[in-house]
């Protein structure tokens, strides 16, 4: 496909992460050859049935250029989410960048909660219990792997 706009003007290094169960950050860098006055705008579409929405809370750099977006109350569906970042400049047309992302793949999990340890010194064993982390995309018990590091003092 032929993309309208100046080569090297589209954003680079686009990446998103979901954290604290329902927050998402997406960030990017300005295109290497984008004019200095280029401003970028992010649109996203959670599924084909929902309408495309613009970012509500941009992260700006020192020149007030949009370099990211903070999303609140994100919930993860089963379809890939569509992201589009386009740009505008007085000097030239700016190429757009787009990507489909499975949101569950970018979720940074919370640590387990309610960790309890009870030890029996006579029988020389300990029982460690915890609740699985809350996750954004499902209430089902998925197959979590846990790693326990025990340090003897």
UniProtKB/TrEMBL annotation:
Chief site of localization: membrane
A single MF term (Gene Ontology): cytokine receptor activity
Signal sequence residues: none
Localization, UniProt: Membrane
Alphabetic keyword roster: Glycoprotein, Membrane, Receptor, Signal, Transmembrane, Transmembrane helix
Domain Type I cytokine receptor cytokine-binding: residue ranges: 13-106
Domain of life: Eukaryota
Annotated membrane topology: Single-pass type I membrane protein
A GO term from the CC aspect: external side of plasma membrane
PANTHER family, per database record: CYTOKINE RECEPTOR, INTERLEUKIN 5 RECEPTOR SUBUNIT ALPHA
Protein known as: CSF2R factor
UniProt source species: Toxostoma redivivum (California thrasher)
